[in-house]
Design brief:
Low-confidence stretches: 1-11
Distance between the termini: 39 Å
Structural class: alpha+beta
Number of strands: 8
Number of helices: 3
Helix content: 10-25%
Mean pLDDT: 85
């Protein structure tokens, strides 16, 4: 790791992280083991808005979503690819990804591990504390605090 945080933008004091350095890795690792209390997918992606395009929900393989952790922190994740295992292609289609989250979330879902790929990009490992896992490869993210969960 290079020891520097790369950021795509800094609007209104909010930084969009795109890579993880050693210091940020240590900070994020403290979140591992927390239960996830809410997952919300965005209908429209940031990439689509910036490119002025629209993704087909049936074929898209990168998603924007929010993941709320039990102890008051949440991730806003952009350009997230979801993998059922380390040797597969990313899942395709919003309905399919929602179904996969539902399957591992039946018994509860946890942020099991924080990892970094060979390009220092963030990987979140989600699981049900048994054998079921999802691996999220993230192009960009924000980390914020929450006081109450979004209304459904």
């Amino acid at each position: 790791m290079n020891g520097a945080i790369a950021m795509n933008s800094n609007h209104n004091g909010v930084s969009l992280y795109t890579t993880v350095d050693d210091e940020l890795y240590d900070e994020l690792s403290e979140l591992a083991g927390q239960k996830i209390v809410y997952v919300g997918f965005w209908e429209d992606s940031l990439a689509d808005a910036l490119n002025e395009t629209e993704s087909d929900p049936a074929t898209q393989n990168a998603f924007d979503l929010d993941i709320y952790l039990e102890e008051g922190v949440y991730f806003e994740l952009y350009g997230t690819s979801v993998y059922p295992d380390l040797n597969s292609d990313p899942l395709q289609g919003l309905e399919n990804v929602n179904e996969q989250f539902g399957e591992i979330g039946k018994q509860g879902i946890w942020l099991e591990e924080i990892a970094v790929d060979e390009n220092d990009e963030l990987i979140l490992v989600l699981g049900d504390q048994a054998k079921n896992r999802l691996y999220l490869s993230i192009a960009g993210w924000l980390l914020e605090e929450w006081d109450e969960l979004p209304e459904e």
